[in-house]
Amino acid sequence: MKTKNTYITILFFACTLLSACKEDFLDRKPDDQVDAEQVFTRYNKTNQLVTDLYDNAKGSNSPLVFFSHFSTAPVTDEAEGSTAEGSLTNKFNNGDWNASVMPAGSSRGQYWWSLYERIRKANVILEGVRKYKTPDNPLQAGDLNKRLGETYFLRAYFHYLAARMYGEVVYVNRTIGTTDPMDFRQESFHAIVAKINQDCDSAMALVPPSWGGADFGRVDQGACLGLKAVVAWMAATPMWNGGTFPNDTRSFAAEYAFNPARWNTAKAAAKAVIDFKVEGRQRYALYQGHDAADFRDDAGINNNNSKVPARLWDLYHNMEAFQNEAVFFVTRDKDNNWQGDIYPPSWGGSSRQMPVQEQVDEYEYIAPDGFGYPVYAARAKKDGYDDANPYESVKRDPRFYRDIVYHGSTFKGKVINTASGADKVGATNSTTTGYFLRKILRESWNRDKSFSISGPPVWRLPEFIYIYCEAVNETAGPNAEIYDLLNTVRKRAFMAPIPAEAKASKALMDEYIKRERRVELFYENNRIWTTRLYLEPSSPKETTKEQAWQGAGSTNDQRSQKAWPYPKSQRMINGMKPVEDPAGKIVVEGKKYKMQRYFIESRVFVTPRHYLFPIMQDELQRTPTLKQNPGW
C-alpha cells in the first residue's frame, strides 16, 4: 500500500480519471467535498470515470505488451527478447530484479502499487455514486447501474491481477482515508478468490448478458463468468492446491493442501462459460470461417505457399471471430510500429521477440494413422519425422505455420533464408533463435502503413474448454466428452485428433490438454502464469529431464541435439540453425541445408523466489503488516 500522503481523497482520483478535467480543478484542496459532489452528481462525468478505469485495465493486462514494448513470452520458454529497450526482458531472465528494483521501464500499471491505485479508483466510484446519489443517464435509463456493474467487475479484475502476480494479497473494498491506519493484512489465495466471486456476482446482477454494436467489448455477464472460471482454475492448480511448493513460507500454506473439491468448482465454473446462453442461444462458439482449402490472407492473396489457412489468420483480426470467441478483451492493443518490431529484417523489421525451440517442439505432427503426436514421441522417427528437416518431413500442426517463420518458409510471398543475408541467424537485428514470430501479424500490411490491432483477447473460448477438460480429467478421469471437446478445437485449426488411447489414460490426456493450451494460447500472456501455477521449474519430472540434459554431452550444443524434449524448468532456451549439407532436404536459394539444434542461453529461475513477484521493499516499510513472498 502507499503511504498516507498518497491515499488522497476522492477529488484527486476523480480528477485524474477525467480526461476533460481543467488544471484549476486539479489544484483545489484534496479535501474539498464540493468538487467530489460536482463529479458524482453528473452522470456524464461518472461515466467518464468508468471509461478511464477500462483504460487502466487495458494497461494492466495487455497480452501483447504486458511489459513495456514486450509481451511476457520472452521471459518464458516461448520466446527470446532482443536487446532493445535496455534489454528489458533479458533482465528478468538474468535474475536482474529484486524487491528493491524492477527492470527500468517495465511497468505499465501491472505492479502492486499501480494495481492498488486502480482498485482505489474503483472504490471511489462505487462510494461516490452511493454518497451523492448520481443520477442515471437522462438519454438511456439503466446506464448508471451498468456502469456500477462494470466497476464491480473491474475491482475484482484488478484483485485477480494482483493475486496472479503476488499470491496472498489484500482485498480492498473501501477507500482508504489519509488518517486511516496502514494495518492492511494479506489473505489466503482462496479467500481472495471468494471475494472476487462476490464482486463478480454483484457485477452480474447489473450488467447485461452481452453487448452489441459499438458497446461490444464492455463487461457483460459472460466476462463475469469468465473471471470466476479463471480464478477457480487457478485455485485448483498445484500452486494453490496440493503442489510441493519448495521452502513454503506463505502465511496460509496450511490452506493449500490438496482438496479435490476445487477441481469440481473449476469444472462447474468453466462449464458455465461454455454453456452460457443469451436469449436461448449459445453465446460462445468456435469461429468456423473459411474452409481447409482457403489460404488467402486478409488481402485475398495466398502469399504463404498454402501453409496458413485463412481461418487461422482471422482469429485475431476478424470481428466475427471476436464476437464468437472473446470472453473479455482490450481494444487496439498495438499498431504498425509493433508489427515492424516483429518483422524479419528482410522486410524492414527488427525481430524483437523470437520464438524458441522449446515452443516449436510443442507443435505436433500428423502421423500416417491420422492422429497427432509430439515430434519427440518415440514413434515420430518411424512415422517420418526428420529433425534435420523438421518442418516439411512430416506435416505439422497448421497453427505452427501460422505462428512461426522458419528457414525455408514463405513469408509475404518470399522464401525466408536464415543462413545468409539480412535474416541470417545472429545478423544485426535478426533472429538469435532461428525463428521469427508470425502469430498476430497482418502479412498484407507493410510496416509503413498506419493501422492498429486488438491483439488476442484476454480470455477466449478455448481457454475455458481446456479448464473444463482438465477438471473433468482430474475429477473423473478421461472420457469421450472431453476427448471430443478437445478435438473440436483441433478440428477448427484443421489439426488431426488426439489418439484414441488418451480416452483411457489420465496421464496421456493431461499431456494433450497441457500441450493444446500451450500451442493454442502461444504468445497470449498465458505461459508465464501456467508454468508457475503447475510449479514446473521445481517438479521432479522436469528437474529429472534437466539433469538428463546436463549429462547428454560435453557441450551445450551436443546436449541440445541429443536430449529432448527439453525440460520446462525455465532455466534455458535453445534454437535451430541451418547448416549446408549436400544431403540436406531443405533447399533455399539453390543451396541444400539440414537443420541443427543449438543452445542459446541459460536463464535464472530460482524456486520458490520466482514463483511469485516480490512486493517492493518500500511498500513493506510503509505497511509493516505486509509479509514478503517466499524467497525474496
UniProtKB/TrEMBL annotation:
Main location: membrane
Location in the cell: Cell outer membrane
Domain RagB/SusD: 337-632
SUPFAM superfamilies, sorted: TPR-like (SSF48452)
Residue segments, region Disordered: 539-567
Record domain SusD-like N-terminal: where: 24-211
Keyword Amino-acid biosynthesis: no
Keyword tags: Cell outer membrane, Membrane, Signal
GO CC aspect terms: cell outer membrane
InterPro entries membership: SusD-like_N, SusD_RagB_dom, TPR-like_helical_dom_sf
Keyword tRNA-binding on entry: no
Protein family per UniProt: Belongs to the SusD family.
Protein name: RagB/SusD family nutrient uptake outer membrane protein
Organism whose genome encodes this protein: Dyadobacter chenwenxiniae
UniProt lineage: Bacteria, Pseudomonadati, Bacteroidota, Cytophagia, Cytophagales
